[in-house]
Structures are given as C-alpha cells and as structure tokens.
Amino acid sequence: SQQGEEDPQALSIQEGENATMNCSYKTSINNLQWYRQNSGRGLVHLILIRSNEREKHSGRLRVTLDTSKKSSSLLITASRAADTASYFCATGQGNTPLVFGKGTRLSVIA
Amino acid sequence: DGGITQSPKYLFRKEGQNVTLSCEQNLNHDAMYWYRQDPGQGLRLIYYSQIVNDFQKGDIAEGYSVSREKKESFPLTVTSAQKNPTAFYLCASRDRGGSGANVLTFGAGSRLTVL
After folding, report:
1. Which of A39, A105, B35, B93 would be A10's cystine partner, CB 3.0–4.6 Å?
2. How far is CA A55 from the centre of its chain?
3. Cβ neighbours around B81 below 10 Å, total
4. Among the partner residues A1, A41, A95, nearest to B108 by beta-carbon distance
C-alpha cells in the first residue's frame, strides 16, 4: 500500500529557528496531509495539499508538494516550544483510508 | 462541542481476556477508522467502516473485531487471539460528503496494556 515516510526521524532546534520535515511516498495520490500529535494524544489535522497544488500556507506552516519526485515538505517558521510534537504525513487517494508515515519527532528548545 | 470520545483512556488486560474499546462521535460523520500506534511508530489501520452495518479489514485486522450498528459508534474488540495487543489505539472519523476531502478527526486515544 502507498505510504509516506518522514525524514528526519527526529529533529531538535532552538526556539525561533525554522523546522523542515520531509515526506516521501510511493504511489499516485489525490492529496497529502500533515498531522501533529502531542505526546500521548490523538492526531490533529494541520494542512492538506492537493495533487494539483505545489505550495500551500497556513499561518507559520508552509507545505510544498512535488508529485514528480513523490515528495512533500513541511516548514514551520519561527518555531516555539509549543511546537514540540510528532508530525506525520498521510497520503490519500479517493475514499481509501489514509496511510500514515512513521513521523518526525520535533523538539523545540526554549 | 462536536468531537470523538474514546474510552477508557487507560486499560489493563490479563492475557487471554477480550477487551472492548469504545469510540463515539457526534460529528455526523459517515466513515470511522481504528488505528494502532506502537512506540515511535506510525499509525497502522486495523478496521474501517464507510457506512452503518458495513466494515472492512485494514492492514492488521487479525485478532481484532468491530461492529457498526449505529452511525455514532464504532467499538473495537481486542480478542485473546491478538498476540501483542499492548499499544495505543486511535479512533478517527471522516465526513465523506464534506469539502474537507478525507481529512480525519481523531479521538484522544486509548492505551491498552497487557499484564
């Protein structure tokens, strides 16, 4: 089944720096989504980018999608300690269930 | 407030026992999902249901069972046949007809520990 794989597995940065996470997937998609998970909690949807879009912004989040390379990146600008969490990409095609990657654990040090 | 409620939050089970995890949503969503998450891992799909009285196996359905008798409810039973059930279980739902594509709304999760 199609699957997103995030890179790096873990990332540690200082508050105020930018954080970039990457996701690669294997098959064609309709959309790619990013979710956030605080420790021991459920996932929260952050942003969705459709296969015909190349870039999307939402507040301090910027997502890019390159369908020719089957990859996406999530940029969090001016990070804060509260951004500390795990971030997952998920790929979607039609009504089939989303398939999630293993996530990137982000630590933002104050 | 609309959302998804999972219970219990923590559950301990002895080997050989079946346990049922509850998932209730008041979002009027058609589709519901159960995922399993192991430490440091992503989410793996156990079962999903697109409409009432219908459900499909996911990637790791063995040792689990579900029912979908009501739109609002999608309970998951972890049976004694599941050899390694200790994990974090996440329930999610999706509005098939909405403009949010297949964006999922998640519950807070249930952590099952086998003693």
Report:
1. A105
2. 13
3. 11
4. A41
Per-residue pLDDT of A22-71, as tens digits, reads 999 998 899 999 999 999 999 999 999 999 999 999 999 999 999 999 99
The answer to whether residue A2 scores a pLDDT higher than 60 is no
The verdict on a CB contact (< 8 Å) between A97 and B48 is yes
Give the DSSP letter string of chain A.
----EEE-SEEEEETTS-EEEEEE-SS--SEEEEEEE-TTS-EEEEEEEETT-SEEEETTEEEEEETTTTEEEEEE-S--GGG-EEEEEEEE-TTSPPEE---EEEEEE-
Q: Which of A38, A93, A100, A104 to mutate to test the interface with B (most CBs of B within 10 A)?
A: A100
Cβ separation of A40 and B109 shorter than 8 Å?
Answer: yes
